[in-house]
Design goal:
mainly alpha; 2 helices; flat
């Protein structure tokens, strides 16, 4: 995401993304009610979305 993707220090990238996510989530929750149960499911949703993107890429590959 943005300039941080070029940061060679993995720890700095991870901290930046963690802090970024916290800010985004705080803003979202300020505008939208979100149960903690849904928040607990978010990592699974992200993994499934990534897997879907990978499968889509394979689907359109031409060998």
């Amino acid at each position: 995401m943005g300039w941080i993707q070029f940061e060679p220090d993995v720890g700095k990238r991870k901290k930046f993304m963690h802090d970024y996510f916290e800010v985004v989530l705080e803003g979202y929750r300020a505008e939208t009610k979100m149960d903690d149960l849904m928040l607990d499911k978010l990592p699974l949703f992200i993994k499934v979305s990534i897997m879907e993107n990978i499968l889509d890429a394979f689907e359109v590959m031409v060998f």
